[in-house]
Structure formats: C-alpha cells, structure tokens
Design brief:
By secondary structure, the protein is mainly α. It has helices at 2-11, 15-28, 33-45, 49-62, 67-79, 86-96, 101-113, 117-130, 135-146, 152-163, 167-190, 195-224, 227-230, 235-260, 265-275, 277-285, 290-311, 314-340. The longest helix has 30 residues, at 195-224.
Length: 341
C-alpha cells in the first residue's frame, strides 16, 4: 500500500510526497528495489542527479534486471558532468537492456560523440525499431544522417567537442581568437609588405565563424529536399533553414548581378544581405521569445544596412556595410551566451 502511494504521488508529479512514501516503504522492506527506484525518479524531477545515481545503484544491487534503475543511472551521468563516464554508462545499459529504446539512443549518442558515426546510425535505427522515437533519438538520427553531407562530419566533431567545454571556456575560446586576430588585421592594413599573409588570418577567422553558425542550417536546408529525412526536422530547424537559405540566395543573386553588370554596389549589397544569415541562424537557434524577436529585428536591420550599402554613395556605403556585418557578428555571440544560460 505504501509503495502504491509513492507511485501515485510520483504520477501526480509531487516529488516531496513520493520521496516520503518511498522512504517509508524502504524502511518496511529494505530488500524491495521498487521504492528505491521511485525515490530516484522523484529526485530526478528535482534534478538531484547525485542522489538519483546513488538510489539507482542501490536498486540495481538488489535487482540487476531493474530497467528503470539502469536508465536513471545513465540519465544522471548524462545530465550531471561531475559524475563522469556517461558514454561508458550508456553502452553498458544498452548491453544490459538491448531492447530498451532509451538505452540504445544513449548508446547512439555515445558513439556519435566518439566519432563512430556508422555505429551511431545502427543504434538509432535499433531505437526507432523498438518503439516510437523520442525527440532525443530523432535529433541523433538527424545528425547521423547529415554526416553524409560534405564537410558536415568535421563540423559535427567540432560541435560535439565545443559542447563538451564549460560555457566560460567556449566564450574565451571565441574571444581569445578574436583578440589575437584583430591586431594582425591592423598590422596588415598598416604594413603593405606583410599584407597578403596577415590578411588571410582574419579572413579565415571570419570564414570559420560563419561556417560554425551556418553549417547546421545549410545541412537542414539540404535535408528539406529529402522527403524521408524531412520529418525529423523540428519546426524551428525548418524555419532556420529557410531563413538562412533566403539570405544566402539573395546574396548570391546580387553577386551574379555584380558580375553581369557594372554596378559596384551589388557586391556590397551581397555581402551585407548574406551576413544577415548569421543573426537569422542565431534567432532560430533559440526558443520562441524575447531573445528570438530581438535577433529577428537585428536580422532585418542587417538586411537594411546591406541594401543601403549597395544603393548609397560609395563613401557612406562602407560604413553601412561595416555596421551590418558587425551587428551580425555581435548577435551570434549574444545568441551563444543566451543559449548557454
């Protein structure tokens, strides 16, 4: 009866009552693994991952076939970095419970993080066959599928490595490279003899930043053309792909216009409008809300700056283009910080 009361409180998402009832049930029968699992699930609602790990291990010690306990122990390792060994944990649970879709999904992500893309695809496919794919499994299947696209595997390895760093480290890596590149750009402008080499470094930095932000939307745009894979994309991924694709397409159109006509402003307009793809990508990387709205406003302003750079006098156009590109770059850093929070 006490165990049923604990399960009922958990079903009502009342962790305090569930924990009290589960602990009482543990006192009545310390060898019953179910109350330990119920308390672990209740503490998971509170995100008390160290306690979840300890309680799940106690339940598994009493009954190694407790599937929920195995999933809770692996989930605690996934969501609490200080516990460590998350990849080994998921693989162990997939071996212990091969018919559990969550265990196979976790094993797929562990293989993806290790760079074993073929193995990851196999695990995600098994997870899909075992039951309705969770959003976590769908995201993994989508990422594994996108690795068939050119350059995406390199980007994915960079992204997984970067995501494994603490937010402060990620910020300082970006800012540190920027602070190194900026003096080199100044030297390049002031020293003609060193110009070719030192100009290349800032250009490579800008390309790397653009690639890190646009690789995923561009890949999503490619996925939109594949009927079977298209359903894996979330709504905001589709919106991001279309917005980024539109900015880049208009930029390419202005570039072709510059090649075909004597209009010099077309190239400035192309650069300004194409750079709007950065805040557009950043906007749809965030959930719907005030931050996304702010970045969409920035996207509109960057597009406007690009158009003005193309149509106004050359002396003023450089200022508009610089303003637009700077706004695009700053907005991506803003989105990175907002996403980390």
């Amino acid at each position: 009866v006490v165990r049923a009361a604990a399960a009922l409180a958990l079903a009502k998402r009342d962790p305090a009552d569930a924990i009290r009832a589960a602990q009482y049930a543990q006192q009545l029968d310390a060898l019953d693994p179910v109350p330990w699992v119920i308390e672990a699930e209740a503490r998971a609602l509170r995100e008390e991952w160290h306690a979840v790990r300890t309680l799940a291990e106690r339940a598994l010690a009493l009954d190694p076939s407790q599937e929920r306990a195995g999933m809770l122990r692996a989930l605690a390792s996934e969501l609490e970095p200080s516990l460590g060994a998350r990849d080994a944990e998921w693989r162990a649970q997939a071996e212990r419970f091969p018919h559990n879709p969550h265990a196979r999904t976790g094993a797929g992500w562990s293989r993806l993080r290790a760079g074993d893309i073929t193995g990851a695809r196999t695990e995600f496919d098994h997870a899909a066959l075992l039951g309705r794919a969770s959003s976590w499994a769908r995201e993994g299947m989508l990422l594994a599928g996108k690795t068939r696209l050119p350059l995406y595997p390199a980007y994915l390895r960079y992204r997984l490595w970067m995501n494994g760093q603490p937010p402060a480290t990620r910020t300082w890596l970006v800012l540190g490279v920027f602070l190194v590149v900026q003096p080199l750009a100044l030297v390049a402008r002031n020293g003609p003899s060193a110009h070719p080499l030192l100009t290349l470094l800032p250009a490579l930095y800008l390309l790397a930043v653009a690639f890190s932000w646009l690789a995923d939307p561009a890949a999503n745009l490619a996925v939109l053309w594949r009927p079977r894979a298209r359903d894996l994309l979330a709504l905001r991924d589709r919106q991001q792909a279309v917005a980024v694709g539109a900015c880049l397409a208009v930029g390419v159109a202005f570039t072709l216009l510059h090649v075909a006509t004597p209009w010099d402003g077309a190239l400035r307009a192309a650069a300004g409008i194409a750079s709007a793809s950065l805040p557009a990508a950043a906007a749809f990387a965030l959930p719907n809300g005030a931050r996304r709205t702010a970045l969409l406003v920035v996207t509109t302003l960057v597009i406007t700056s690009g158009l003005l750079a193309g149509f106004v006098d050359a002396g003023v156009s450089d200022a508009w283009l610089t303003l637009g590109v700077a706004a695009a770059m700053l907005s991506t850093w803003y989105a990175t910080a907002a996403g980390a929070r």
